[in-house]
């Protein structure tokens, strides 16, 4: 059946700057139907200004006071403080700054829910967002010019993966339910189609890119993972002299280069849909794949020969939405489709992971909730979808954005917007780590929300 035609008119993204408020309200006044939360611990009586849309709730534990950063740096220079303790001090300072986070812009650019989000790697005020209809918006919220909007095909064109091209940031890679993984520019041109299923029964669900090794990896809905060279050369396996074996963009000249005539590297690595693929940012020959077959698998791309050649298979109790390496490559964060986050440690994959109970159940008409890392600190950010069957669920629990410590699994902070109280599926900090973009991926509505530390309102 041919997809329905979409109207020629497109919505103009709505950008809203919040006015300042002069009235102070307690956290439980932010939403009328929410009852007062009775939680013990410091900070339970703290009050927040109503102009601070990202309000700390009464149930939150306030981070302990941090020492002076200048003092900590001085002690580290004198050899009196180790680097981990300095990092912890910087992290505590950041957690305190979350109290001043406010929404300063939001937009509703699509007529279908949002499905993907990517920050520009070098412009901290620019991001790209994809929708279920295949629409893509490039938004530089630092200027008031109209965002760049690429219209999709409508039904069946859902953007499942979105990554800027690290070799040319005016371009981006997408994987989609249209059945392609392609390279595009923001003029709407398709520069190269890397993979095409040529059938409506197979589509691509995820992708990742490595600039150093010039590799593109993508996974489909039947369990296959495909590896390609950015230059369009298809590779079947990574020989010992491949660029992935060295910390350089190209292999040494004294070694032979891989033959460009090798066939497509396309192997079935999972029994069911591959929901997420990720290359380790420090060792890009190390790859993680997540699937609805309730496993996350770790691969050495230099030794892949089939689904039985994975280094480790990490079993989960439910289907898995994502598996993300930490910025330093030392940890792996997984999000299942029920109520569990897991943190695995590199080189100790067989050890029991750190388990973080967290409600984020999945249903068909919701963009899958995925936890992500902060780019500079060992912090995890994820949207909460309250579940009455969850062990610690409280009456009228709010749909917050939760921040966890990646080492201890301890809840550090929660952010909440009473005027956009939908289910928040995707959250991601920009590369600078000072601005948070959040997407509500429900069927009926979308808000692109941008929050950062702002001065407290006066009066």
Automatic annotation (TrEMBL):
PROSITE patterns assigned: WD_REPEATS_1 (PS00678), WD_REPEATS_2 (PS50082), WD_REPEATS_REGION (PS50294)
SUPFAM superfamilies: WD40 repeat-like (SSF50978)
Subcellular location as annotated: Nucleus
Cited Pfam families: WD40 (PF00400)
Transmembrane segments: none
UniProt-annotated stretches for the region Disordered: 1-28
Organism field: Suricata suricatta
Taxonomy, superkingdom: Eukaryota
Keywords per UniProt: DNA damage, DNA repair, DNA-binding, Nucleus, Repeat, Ubl conjugation pathway, WD repeat
Gene assigned in the entry: DDB2
WD repeat coordinates: 267-309
The protein's name: DNA damage-binding protein 2
Membership in a protein family: Belongs to the WD repeat DDB2/WDR76 family.
Stretches of the chain forming a coiled coil according to its record: none
Positions with biased composition (Basic and acidic residues): 1-11
GO molecular function, one term: damaged DNA binding
GO cellular component assignments: Cul4-RING E3 ubiquitin ligase complex; nucleus
